[in-house]
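Second opinion, please. Pick holes in both lines of this record:
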Amino acid sequence: MRTLTLAAALVAALGLAGCSGMSNETQRTLSGGAIGATVGAAGTALTGGCVACGAAIGGAVGAGAGYLSDKIDLD
C-alpha cells in the first residue's frame, strides 16, 4: 500500500510540473476536467454505477466548467 501511495504522489507531482507552460485557460480547463473525472468516478463507485461512464461525464462537465470559469473570470 505504501508503494502505491508513493507512486501516486510521484505521478501527481510530474503531472503538475507539466502544466508550467500552459495558458490560464488551458490550465483551468485541464484542472476542471481532472477534478470532474475524479468526482464522477468516485460518485458512481459509491452508488454502484458505471465508473468509466461517471468519470467520462464528470470530466466533460468539469472541463466545460473550467473553461467557462476562465472566460467569465469573477475576480
